[in-house]
Amino acid sequence: MAVPYQACDSSAKHYRDVIVIGAGAAGLMCAAEAGARGRSVMVIDHAPVTGKKIRVSGGGRCNFGNLNTSPGNYQSENPGFCTSALARFGSQEFIGLLEKHGIRYHEEDGRLFCDNGSLEIVGMLEKECDSSDVEIRLNCRVSGIKKQDFFAVDTNLGRFRSHSLVVATGGVSFRQLGATGFGHRTARRFGLNVTPLRPALVPLQWGRRDRTTFGTLAGISFDTAVTCSGKTFRGSVLLTREGLSGPALLQASLYWREGTPLLLDLLPRGNAYEIFLSKRQRKVEMRNLLAGYLPKRFIQTWSDIFFASKPMNQYSDRELRKIALALHRWEIVPAGTAGFSRAEVTLGGIDTRELSSKTMEAKKVAGLYFVGEVMDVTGQLGGFNLQWAWSSGYAAGQFV
């Protein structure tokens, strides 16, 4: 049961086998598994409620996983690290937990959602913790951590001590939900490396010229295929005043770096040149023809840049090929991202080469564990990041 506030002192009665800092997806999963092994566990969090990020996942529907999860869905400087944990606790294992609690779910193109919203997942995790006698203290802010024979965690509620310490504080995205860099600072204090942090699954911003041209088309969306750094994602792209958003664009942002171009295929369902050949004897204007495939306002603006619109029967074969190429390979060089305040996840984090892929324990510091988004393991859009939280939390929970 979560305890919003209770004064305490630093006496021996405040010792636990395990302290978990962070009452999110990974932290609660780890705590429940450790408690089920008979370990005495305390979870502390500065927030007034548990699972703040779970609550907003999938727009409140909670996209809790994906049937097609594999290591290839994750980005990391140490790509193989996630393989072991995913193999030991994947989507089917989490589904088993849902079914144990009678929680109904459904699948959309591999993505898994709760039928009745994210609060069911939060409630399930709290029940799992409660059944394992895990104590959860909220509104509990950590001011310092020391390690001698045990970990001493100083908080506004007093000092707590433990044999094992799990850091499950997430990344620095979703700052409006209270995200901080606490986990990364903690790792550095204990001598662990932290890879560079970047906003990911985030809208990208127009360059100055593109903003002048396309910023007025905010609200227009269309189906496309976005390619970035050799990765291609099919789906909707949304034009905004500041830049580009939408599912396909957010996916591509995970692989985008400054100066890297995006290639947008505006007609991913067909071959533009073949379409032109089938219409080239007609008098219909090119932009009117394309308005049958793309939003009219967009194609009017886009065509002013890439070709002079005229009747189809007046184009040469070379002109048609050039326009077709531009449609299938519209190149955009974003100026930057919309930042951590708009990012769904943080790319980068605790260098996983510093951790055991089996236990999530720091190789340099016995008893110190990291789970979830605080590590340099970042999933694509579609439930993969929550799956990593379950998998890494479960893995650490078997050993803390």
List the helices and strands and how they pair.
Blueprint: E1 2-3, E2 15-21, H1 25-36, E3 41-44, H2 52-56, E4 63-66, E5 74-75, H3 83-88, H4 91-100, E6 105-108, E7 111-114, H5 119-131, E8 135-137, E9 142-147, E10 151-155, E11 158-167, H6 182-189, E12 198-200, E13 204-205, H7 208-214, E14 221-228, E15 231-239, E16 243-245, H8 247-253, E17 262-265, H9 272-279, H10 286-290, H11 296-306, H12 317-328, E18 330-332, E19 336-337, E20 345-347, E21 368-370, E22 378-379, H13 384-397
Helix pairs in contact: 1-5, 1-13, 9-12
Task: Characterise the protein shown here.
By secondary structure, the protein is of the alpha+beta class. Helix content is 30%, strand content 23%. It has 13 helices and 22 strands. The strands form five sheets. Strands 1, 2, 3, 8, 9, 10, 11 and 21 form an eight-stranded mixed β-sheet that branches. Strands 18-17-14-15-16-13-19 form a seven-stranded antiparallel β-sheet. Strands 4-7-6 form a three-stranded antiparallel β-sheet. Strand 14 (221-228) and strand 15 (231-239) form a beta hairpin. Helix 1 (25-36) runs parallel beside helix 5 (119-131). 44% of the residues are buried. Residues 1-11 have low confidence and may be disordered.
